[in-house]
């Protein structure tokens, strides 16, 4: 069983400290069960921005915030961040375990070229996995959702739960919900979509953070307001469903060596 807390936030533009404080307040109001998976949106400390030099987390403030959060609640935390280790930024999902240890870092494989993200951010080149609550989980970021092949790689490598953190706009909210559902059905996996709500200086965001089961049923939907949604993921039922309807065994042209 994986217990999940998804934090939906109206991000404060380019204000790392204020967003840390807001995330902390939301979780204080609705604390996660120890051992849970806590998910925060893409680039949650600053919003989705191309101003990498201005917002990059050079002194690991957000990394330390996530470490402190994980240790405080004894949970595993997935949170977005922007870093700049060289000439280009990295749009990352940092995963921290209950003891404060960094379990893995995922770099967004598909920068959003429609908004010019590819000019400022280096694309990642690997799918990653981590364990929580007895399940194997893979994180993805926003635009990755439009590329089913990376989700298939994750599942071929053992993922049972896929987490998508995002700043997905209101203009394409129907795509958000449809694609999350498709990724769950085709991969027979739980899919967690953590999106921001509110607006930045350029774009409106719908929220609509959701947890979807392996058959495409929406288990919980955060709507359009700030808050925390919680859901338990039954891995026993997932594994039984995969055994009873073994579609994943019929996959062709993909195998674990691709991952």
Work out the helix count. Answer: 7
Oligomeric state of the chains present here: single chain
Regarding CATH, which class?
Answer: Alpha Beta
Tell me how many strands there are.
14
- Helical fraction: 25-40%
- The backbone outline, from C-alpha atoms, is globular
In terms of structural class, how would the helical and strand content be classed? alpha/beta
Overall mean confidence score, pLDDT: 97
Q: Major beta sheet, specifics?
A: 6 strands, mixed
CATH topology: Nitrilase/N-carbamoyl-D-aminoacid amidohydrolase
Task: Give a description of the structure.
With 259 residues, the protein is an alpha/beta fold. It has a single domain, classed as Nitrilase/N-carbamoyl-D-aminoacid amidohydrolase, CATH 3.60.110.10. It is 27% helix and 28% strand. The protein is built from 7 helices and 14 strands. The protein has helices spanning 16-29, 52-55, 61-73, 117-120, 148-156, 173-187, 235-244; strands at residues 2-8, 37-39, 76-83, 90-96, 102-107, 130-132, 135-141, 161-166, 190-195, 197-199, 204-206, 210-212, 218-221, 227-233. The strands form 3 sheets. Strands 5-4-3-2-1-14 form a 6-stranded mixed beta sheet. It has a 6-stranded mixed beta sheet with strand order 6-7-8-9-12-13, covered by helices on one side. The longest helix is centred in the last third of the chain and has 15 residues, at 173-187.
């Amino acid at each position: 069983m994986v217990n999940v807390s998804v934090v939906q936030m109206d991000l404060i533009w380019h204000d790392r400290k204020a967003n840390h404080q807001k995330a902390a307040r939301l979780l204080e109001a609705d604390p996660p069960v120890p051992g849970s998976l806590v998910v925060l949106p893409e680039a949650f400390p600053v919003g989705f921005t191309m101003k990498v030099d201005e917002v990059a987390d050079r002194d690991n403030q957000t990394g330390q915030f996530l470490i402190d959060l994980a240790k405080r609640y004894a949970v595993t935390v997935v949170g977005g961040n922007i870093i700049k280790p060289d000439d280009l930024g990295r749009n990352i999902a940092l995963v921290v375990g209950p003891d404060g240890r960094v379990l893995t870092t995922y770099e967004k494989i598909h920068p959003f070229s429609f908004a010019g993200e590819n000019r400022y951010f280096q694309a990642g080149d690997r799918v990653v996995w981590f364990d929580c609550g007895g399940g194997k989980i893979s994180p993805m970021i926003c635009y990755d959702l439009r590329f089913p092949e990376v989700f298939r790689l994750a599942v071929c490598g053992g993922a049972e739960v896929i987490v998508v953190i995002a700043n997905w706009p209101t203009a394409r909210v129907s795509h958000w919900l449809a694609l999350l559902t498709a990724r769950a059905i085709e991969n027979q996996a739980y899919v967690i979509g953590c999106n921001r709500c509110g607006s930045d200086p350029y774009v409106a965001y719908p929220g609509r953070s959701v947890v979807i089961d392996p058959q495409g049923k929406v288990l919980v939907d955060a709507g359009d307001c700030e808050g925390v949604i919680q859901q338990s993921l039954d891995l026993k039922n997932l594994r039984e469903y995969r055994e009873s309807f073994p579609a994943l065994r019929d996959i062709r042209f993909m195998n674990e060596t691709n991952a």
